[in-house]
Amino acid sequence: PLRLHGVDPVRLATFLAAEQQAYRRAHPHSAELASRASEHWHGGVPLHWMSDWGLPFPLFLKEASGSCLTCVDGHEHADFCLGDTGAMFGHAPEPVRRAVAHQIARGATAMLPSLLVPEVGRLLAERFALPVWQATLTASDANRAVIRWARALTGRSDILIFNGAYHGAVDDVHVRLADGAPIQRPGLVGQVYDMRAHTRVVEFNDLAALEAALADGGVALVLAEPVMTNIGMVLPDEGYHAALRRLTRAAGTLLAIDETHTLSAGPGGYARAHALEPDFLVVGKAIGGGVPAAVYGVTAAVSQGMARVRAEAPGYSGIGTTLSANALAMAAMRAMFEEVMTADAYRHMIATASDLAGRLRAIIAERRLPWCVTAAGARVEFMLAPEPPRTGGAAARIGSAEIEGALRLALINRGVVVTPFHNMLLAAPTTGPEAVDRLCAGLEDALDAIVAP
Ligand code: PMP
């Protein structure tokens, strides 16, 4: 049955058609580039996801700076997507521009540690409270590495993830629950291995299921976002993380916290803000200020274990890629940690996001929509359900691609970019009150056109 979520389907269809037409009219240059790009790029885009925004054709980027994104047709957009966290601290931060210009003139990648390596290691340890680090290019790479190390360290083959989790292009993680049974995530291209053989999956916030899944001592690693952020947002119950840590320790299972998105919670991420005690911590996306960079931190005990594993089985580890830990990434990270991801920047981001969350709640309440708003620091999400879901399974059952797609398109037509695939909004250090005003006004305008009278 069609889920209406307080929206009138006839008004929605009329509105969507009008917005598509408005988009086409306003973006002739994007249309032309889309047509030319389709000659030599599969699906007309260099990464096939780029055509999944629900737009008549992709919006082509001219340039982006701070929280402002300008498309090739010259429209300036307030950017709340911020590269789906890749640019969470604003586009093209000046300290990163400086650091990158300096480093690129001195060589970007050489398979050697650069002179900034000791300093960046110190900054990571100080910020995230784990003593030992490794670098990769992407958070996906970091999660893959962590899974491999955990298996090697424990001698166990299985990992455990939470239903609805996303940790990047990591094969082991593409398992979910359907009616309580694990299935391979539908849609995977060319996947010939059955991930269910070594991946267990339970619902977030379900301690009994977690305890049962760990009971046989076969799980090497629990890989978790501290707040689920890729299926709308699912917050942990009070005391959930303490219990997760207690149960993993009791089962001899290592715990990896994936902070890639929850870095929005504070300068040291959610784990630091809530004194979690992970064995591994993964951080990626935003820490290079746009330069590809990710890292994973480990405890002293894990680091010693890693050394033992390598001593016992030297040779090619299967972990790492050629450009990982390159000099350019180190320069970008140092600039980010020292000059961009500051306590002041976080104060502004979190205050802006909390103001935004309050205004969204008021917009929803005024129209009596059965929707809710969740937040994790600088990250805000509106969800088409009356109450925030407590599990990924519940989160997967709500929402509406039609309504959310129409709102995303309508917002772009009103000079606001929000994240595709879900309704996530990020506040950067550069997000000003006029951007929040524009977002709220655009959303109200769109809602007034589609809400059931
Ligand atoms: N972990 C989490 C929690 C993520 O949300 C993502 C990407 N959305 C990743 C890891 C992977 O990041 P990347 O695509 O940069 O490898």
UniProtKB/TrEMBL annotation:
GO terms for molecular function: pyridoxal phosphate binding; transaminase activity. The keyword Transferase applies. Its cofactor is pyridoxal 5'-phosphate. It holds the Pfam family Aminotran_3. Signal peptide: none annotated. SUPFAM superfamilies: PLP-dependent transferases. Keywords: Aminotransferase, Pyridoxal phosphate, Transferase. The keyword Lipid metabolism does not apply. It comes from the Bacteria. Belongs to the class-III pyridoxal-phosphate-dependent aminotransferase family. PANTHER family: GLUTAMATE-1-SEMIALDEHYDE 2,1-AMINOMUTASE, GLUTAMATE-1-SEMIALDEHYDE 2,1-AMINOMUTASE 1, CHLOROPLASTIC-RELATED. This is Aminotransferase class III-fold pyridoxal phosphate-dependent enzyme. The lineage of its organism: Bacteria, Pseudomonadati, Pseudomonadota, Alphaproteobacteria, Hyphomicrobiales.
